[in-house]
Design a protein that fits this description.
The structure holds 3 protein chains of 3 kinds. By secondary structure, chain A is mostly helical. Chain A has a domain at about 55-230: MetI-like (MetI-like fold), CATH 1.10.3720.10. Chain A has helices spanning about 5-30, 50, 60-90, 95-110, 110-125, 130-155, 160-170, 175-200, 205-210, 215-225, 230-260. By secondary structure, chain B is of the alpha+beta class. Chain B folds into 2 domains: about 1-230, P-loop containing nucleotide triphosphate hydrolases (Rossmann fold, 3-Layer(aba) Sandwich); about 235-365, OB fold (Dihydrolipoamide Acetyltransferase, E2P) (Beta Barrel). In chain B, the strands form 4 sheets. In chain B, strands 6-7-8-3-9-10 form a 6-stranded mixed β-sheet, sandwiched between helices. In chain B, strands 13-12-11-14-20 form a 5-stranded antiparallel β-sheet, with no helix packed on it. In chain B, α5 links the parallel β7 and β8 (about 190-195). In chain B, α2 packs across α3 (about 115-125), α2 (about 100-110) packs parallel to α4 (about 140-155) and α3 (about 115-125) packs across α4 (about 140-155). The longest helix of chain B has 18 residues, at about 170-190. Chain B is elongated and about 75 Å long. Chain C has one domain (about 80-300): MetI-like (MetI-like fold, Orthogonal Bundle), CATH 1.10.3720.10. In chain C, a hairpin with an 8-residue loop joins β1 (about 55) and β2 (about 65). In chain C, α2 packs across α11, α7 (about 200-205) packs antiparallel against α8 (about 210-225) and α10 (about 260-270) runs antiparallel to α11 (about 275-300). The longest helix of chain C is centred in the N-terminal third of the chain and has 42 residues, at about 70-110. In chain C, about 45% of the residues are buried. Classes of the chains: A mainly alpha, B alpha+beta, C mainly alpha. Chains A and C meet through α1, α3, α4, α5 and α6 of A and α1, α2, α3, α4 and α9 of C.
């Protein structure tokens, strides 16, 4: 193989690009071990303290718990509503398809400030008190479209003959859905749920407009940014990161193992 | 062992079925009666409506007009899961998230039959796949999947079994084996089978009755030999096997036969084998029924002769030689000569006459599309 | 499918749509009603609020319904610099993101095809920044480029920067942050498009005497255009409305304020709801124009 500089250029570029992408993560990770006081700007020393006593910093764990709670509720509702829409869009023919596609697409294309300000105005007009539930309502709204996109791809690859076979074999429509359609859609629905949770957990702008005094984790970081974000926030950020990477790798490995097992044909 | 599965096969009746889809009519004026216990083949090219017919019987579609009766009961408005009918799908449609055993047991579970797994195991025994009961469908070969699909349908002892081109995805050898197996099971168990296919050899081989479908209606129906020996329409004559067709006006009639004049030749067909007796008609004969002569044969009331024509193509297909002969004013005629082990007597360019028995001629009810209609 | 990025499974067997009727309505109604109530209605609310005027009889931050189109005029005049700046930054960041992401996406989607596990790993690395709060990521850059940081002091010492010049708070820093945060949005659609590129087209190009550069320009680039377009849309639109990066607490300063910052401050701090809403509507309007141009070219089925 002729050694040519040209062939090396692209892989080298990729390596540099990946380093560039991962620098902030490394930085955050490193500084989560900083023996810092109130702010986390200067390196003072290495310690595991922040990891073991994460909740000692006031507000961090509460914000984290709020984010998890909001994320769970929003995910469940958005996934249910979005899955139903995705099934309808793929499996049925009806008028207004284009309008509905457009309506579903718009929230993804609208800048978060507009979404946030709009909802906040709406709540204001209706005299609704801003709080955890207004945040949840907002999150469900913008997660919905992402769920539809993700599930739609999965529904499209589902052979309709399978459901027909179910009906042919004496299953009524409800049984067909729960015994055949849903188990086969589960991978897509799970992916959509994960995406939805991630979007909700990390959301700041829309949340900021629609929260009252309640803190979510991103809000906590934002308000703390002026004074200095404590290392405990880094800890939580990194913990979530590690968990997410773990889940992604685990599902990849799991499907790889499954694939290898199924490939053993006779 | 198959006797354990005997339910009485039911008969099927379709009355005046019409099925519309947005933008086109798939089936119109369809009448069909399949007697109980029969192996019935619905044969036709793609798009002729045969799969739609099957789906109507299964209940997966509803007819726009008409009624469907199974075993004498009107099931037109019954849902699929309430009909005593099971389908073997073209793509098998085995549930990928269940084991082979669970697939077969599915219908039994839905109907709350007890001991579903025991019965499923027995069905798998019938198709000799019991040893793969715990595999997932994706781990099986095409032929094995097809047999699982069959077991899954049969285990429910349906009165009527629908098969939607189930052998299409199999290679030739496997297809032949499955044809024999399917036929054996059907005869043993006594169920009514409705088999949809575009493969005319398969239909003629397996079925007691064949219905040829075209453009949403049935052109002709009957025993395979009858259909082959006496096609009634141009479509059937060309879809089942090959035919040579000649078009001409009826010039004379006798007590038993009618004759047309075409290209200077007088061709006769027995009256009881002709659909139309007057006007411009199309008559035909099968290539394997004809022989050719290097000298013009003597005239004979039992034989039709045309010629002389020139051999323009010879094809060797192992079993036979196929000759294409161009006869002036008549067109191209195909003749099959069984390969008896002698080298061909005839070569390209030779002038020959073609003859065949009058009793092998058939008269059709319509005319070929490229001919001016009478 | 332009926007079906995010690693969705694009192998779709065409499934025949069957019947309409009650089932469809039951499936669609809840979700669509939700969007109608919490997406469409708020947008309408925005428009309404944008036309309001201060309550003559009321106190601070009280407005009454009106039809004051003049609000728009005021807002455009007052904040024109911010509007232009936002789109300028968005354009710069989008172009930069495209330039940075394209080779990366090409490497993963085309060159790394023989190694699917490696492809998946690299895609995970691209998405990895998503898994850590984007505020924390942005803060990390702020610290790395802060006035006392190693990077800045080195640049100052080497003479590339004046002693009094800083990096954080400059347009450069804001654009840098915006680009960084939205690279995954650009890379994934590009990857999806390039992943489906049939290598044989490139081979045909070389077979027909085209140099690698020409093959890229005349074959690869046009064929990856759907990915470029959807990636560009997916990046430009959110960037235009971003305000975290440009905020004084993060990478910006008061001189780098974007539309998002203005809307945020008007809404949450000054409580000038009509102005904030008018700006939001304007921003939304520009977006809709861009989307409609796209839809006209590719139809709505491609959107999702």
């Amino acid at each position: 193989m002729r050694f040519s500089l040209g062939k090396l250029a692209l892989p080298l570029y990729a390596v540099i690009a990946f380093i560039y992408l991962l620098i902030p993560i490394l930085y955050t990770f490193v500084f989560s071990f900083n023996d810092s006081l109130k702010t986390n700007l200067i390196w003072r020393g290495f310690t595991f303290d922040k990891w073991t006593n994460v909740c000692q910093r006031e507000g961090v764990c509460e914000a984290f718990t709020n984010s998890v709670f909001i994320g769970l509720i929003s995910t469940i509702v958005a996934t249910a509503l979005g899955t139903a829409i995705a099934i309808a869009l793929v499996r049925y023919r009806f008028k207004f398809r284009s309008s509905i596609n457009l309506l579903l697409f718009l929230p993804m294309a609208t800048p978060e400030v507009v979404l946030g300000a709009g909802l906040a105005s709406q709540f204001f007009n209706l005299g609704v008190q801003k709080g955890i539930w207004t945040i949840i309502i907002a999150h469900i709204m913008f997660c919905l479209s992402f769920v539809v996109v993700t599930v739609k791809a999965r529904v499209a690859s589902l052979d309709p003959a399978l459901e027909e076979a179910g009906r042919d074999l004496y299953a009524n429509p409800r049984q067909v859905f729960w015994k055949i359609t849903f188990p086969l859609l589960l991978p897509g629905v799970s992916a959509a749920a994960l995406l939805s949770f991630a979007l909700s957990f990390d959301d700041f702008i829309i949340t900021n407009f629609n929260a009252g005094a309640d803190m979510t984790f991103p809000r906590y970081v934002y308000t703390a940014a002026a004074r200095g974000v404590p290392a405990e926030a880094n800890v939580i950020g990194c913990a979530v990161f590690l968990l997410a990477i773990f889940i992604v790798l685990a599902t990849q490995i799991n499907s790889e193992v499954k694939r290898k097992r199924l490939a053993k044909k006779h | 062992m198959a006797k354990e599965f005997i339910a009485r096969g039911a008969d099927l009746e379709l009355k005046q079925i019409r099925k519309e889809f947005p933008g086109f009519v798939a089936i119109d004026n369809l009448d069909l009666h399949v007697p109980a216990g029969e192996f019935f083949a619905l044969l036709g090219p793609s798009g002729c409506g045969k799969t739609t017919t099957l789906r109507l019987v299964a209940g997966l579609e509803s007819p726009t007009k008409g009624q469907i009766y199974i075993g004498g009961k009107d099931v037109t408005n019954t849902k699929p899961h309430e009909r005593p009918v099971n389908t073997v799908f073209q793509s098998y449609a085995l549930f990928p998230h269940m084991s082979v055993l669970e697939n077969v047991a599915f219908g039994l579970r839905q109907r709350k039959i007890d001991e579903p797994l025991v019965k499923a195991k027995k069905a798998l025994n019938l198709v000799q796949l019991a040893h793969l009961a715990d595999r997932k469908p994706q781990q099986l070969s095409g032929g094995q999947q097809q047999r699982v699909a069959l077991a899954r349908a049969l285990v429910n002892r349906p009165s009527l079994l629908l098969l939607d081109e189930p052998l299409g995805a199999l290679d030739l050898k496997l297809r032949r084996e499955m044809q024999i197996e399917l036929k054996a099971i059907q005869m043993e168990v006594g169920l009514t089978f409705l088999h949809v296919t575009h493969d005319q050899e398969e239909a003629m081989d397996m079925a007691d009755t064949v219905a040829v479908m075209n453009l949403g209606h049935i052109e002709q129906m009957g025993a395979p030999e009858v259909l082959y020996d006496r096609p009634k329409t141009v479509f059937v004559s060309k879809f089942l096997g090959q035919s040579n067709l000649l078009v001409g006006d009826v010039t004379s009639t006798s007590a038993n036969s009618i004759s047309i004049e075409v290209g200077g030749n007088k061709i006769s067909v027995p009256k009881d084998r002709a659909e139309k007796h007057t006007g411009k008609i199309a008559i035909g004969f099968r290539p394997e029924k004809a022989i050719f002569h290097t000298k013009k044969p003597a005239a004979n009331s039992a034989t039709n002769v045309i010629g002389a024509g020139e051999i323009i193509d010879i094809r060797f297909t192992g079993v036979s030689n196929q000759y294409l002969i161009e006869v002036p004013n008549l067109g191209n005629i195909t003749v099959f000569a069984q390969n008896m082990g002698q080298s061909p007597v005839i070569e390209l360019g030779e002038k020959v006459w073609i003859s065949w028995a009058v009793e092998h001629t058939f008269g059709l009810s319509d005319l070929p599309a490229n001919v001016e209609q009478a | 499918m332009a926007f079906a990025a995010f690693g969705s499974n694009n192998s779709s067997k065409p499934s025949k749509p069957t019947k309409t009727g009650k089932v469809v309505i039951a499936l669609l109604a809840p979700g669509l009603a939700y969007l109608g109530a919490f997406f469409l209605t708020p947008l309408i609310a925005l428009i309404m609020v944008s036309l309001q005027i201060p309550d003559p009889a009321g106190g601070y931050a009280e407005y009454v319904p009106a039809l004051e189109i003049g609000n728009y005029g005021y807002v455009i005049a007052e904040y024109l610099p911010h509007i232009l700046r936002s789109f300028a930054y968005a354009l710069a960041a989008t172009v930069l993101a495209l330039l940075i992401s394209y080779p990366l996406a090409y490497f993963i989607g085309v060159k790394a095809r023989p190694w699917p596990m490696l492809q998946k790993l690299m895609l995970t690395l691209v998405i990895a920044p998503f898994f850590i709060s984007f505020l924390l990521r942005t803060l990390a850059w702020k610290q790395l480029f802060s006035n006392e940081s190693w990077i800045v002091t080195t640049l100052q010492d080497s003479g590339l920067l004046d002693q009094s010049q800083y990096v954080v708070g400059t347009p450069f820093m804001v654009i840098f942050g915006l680009t960084y945060n939205f690279i995954p949005f650009m890379t994934l659609p590009l990857y999806t498009s390039l992943e489906r590129l049939d290598i044989r087209y490139l081979e045909a190009g070389s077979d027909l005497y085209a140099s690698p550069a020409k093959v890229f320009r005349k074959v690869t680039l046009p064929l990856s255009m759907p990915g470029i377009i959807s990636g560009t849309l997916l990046t430009f639109i959110p960037i235009a409305g971003d305000y975290v990066n440009a905020s004084g607490d993060f990478l910006g300063s008061s001189s780098t304020a974007m539309i998002g910052n203005v809307i945020e401050s008007n809404y949450l701090q000054i409580n000038d709801y009509p102005s904030a809403s008018a700006l939001s509507v304007l921003l939304m309007g520009v977006i809709l124009v861009l989307v409609s141009v796209y839809v006209r070219k590719s139809g709505t089925e491609d959107l999702l």
